[in-house]
Model the fold of this input.
Amino acid sequence: MTTNLRSGSLDAGVSASAGPRVGVLALQGDFREHAHVLATLGAEVSLVRRPEELDAVDGLVIPGGESSVMDKLARTFGLQAPLKAAIAAGLPVYGTCAGLIMLADTVLDAIAGQESLGGLDVVVRRNAFGSQNQSFETDLDIPALGEVPVHAVFIRGPVVESVGAAATPLATLADGRVVAVEQGNLLGTSFHPEITGEHRFHEYFLAKVRERASVSS
Amino acid sequence: MTVSETGSSRVKRGLAEMLKGGVIMDVVTPEQARIAEDAGAVAVMALERVPADIRSQGGVARMSDPDLIDAIIAEVSIPVMAKARIGHFVEAQVLQALDVDYIDESEVLSPADYVNHIDKWAFNTPFVCGATNLGEALRRINEGAAMIRSKGEAGTGDVSEATKHIRKISSEINVLRSMTKDELYVAAKELQAPYELVLEVAETGKLPVVLFVAGGVATPADAAMMMQLGADGVFVGSGIFKSGNPEARAAAVVKATTFYDDPSVVAAVSRGLGEAMVGINVADLAAPHRLAERGW
Done:
């Protein structure tokens, strides 16, 4: 196609260099924004919609979007089982918003029959802040990423209602609610660094991908 | 203590970013909303009559009954949009008070103001507006729209107008990209759009907000074609619940939108869907019945 209409086009920043190979789950949502950030940071980015495309990556990002739609499409097109297997085998995965929901072991306020991939030992509540009128942006202090606060955009976002023994909270709102978690090679945020120009979460994630790639090669 | 801000441009435009690659479906009952969510819709548009019925029944088409909107919001967990008449800022205030997730200032309803559109900056709830060309899209964005949908010709099942509008917007963007900076002043005058927005489009090669396609999409192949033409996602109005098997058709359109560039998937999901909506050829519509011409 020759059209450049689609926002967040990949053309702008894809590097030909041999950076870490990172896939972005591209069933629905703002996957191009993630791809753009990752490419800017030197990763070799590919979009993942089919099981075989998962074999060619050392890390995966699950973008923002509608978790119930991603779950449905992942199951319909045979991606759910390979994704679960890859997570169990230690593939680094970073999920934002809907991606965090997909990575949670337990999801509250899901639609009937909705499943998650699991991996993060957390309970996540969907749409925890209410309707779009309650969506907001704010600054978060996240010591793991340095002294400068992280500007975070929450769009009908989830929150982590409880953090199991295996997972570690990375960020909380002023009221104490957890909005970012880490567990081994898995990382999840309720908010969207991919649409604010905030690159530190992606850098943090890419460090995991590089480490994993160097161990397995 | 950090400050939280709702209703910022980033937050408003951000929800549209999250809807990308998805299908937004018109629904007129909570039962239809449930079918849409189960089929994989990213959002629903709550309204009393789908455009095909507005067309056949005639009369003034207005904002839906708040009871209906409440019932649909209560039924689903995906975002709920609702329509206000062009220029009817009080209908928009009501929809904001009802806590809908997006307000569609829509030509499908009867216009309330033949001169002014709603000042959308004045609202916390984001707006989506229709456009048939780039100038119209940029005027709506200048008024505060956080998402644009090409208009097509709603309620017809004829995709030709949707094709015309997305191609028009696309080609007008391509023309801007090839212009020198001094030519852009004239371009802004001719597009009847603010220079700053014209410059931004010329530099980035895209609209500053998400662009969906609407109006006449009735089949999985229609949806995939709009995606191949550069849409960020699709609205399906009458096309689903005016067809023979809404559940199957809705799920098929969702899959075709994700795999829009894979004809084997589009072929597979197009099988056995039963009858598509009957449809009206846009060429057979008398000019006063063409909804896309509403909006200025």
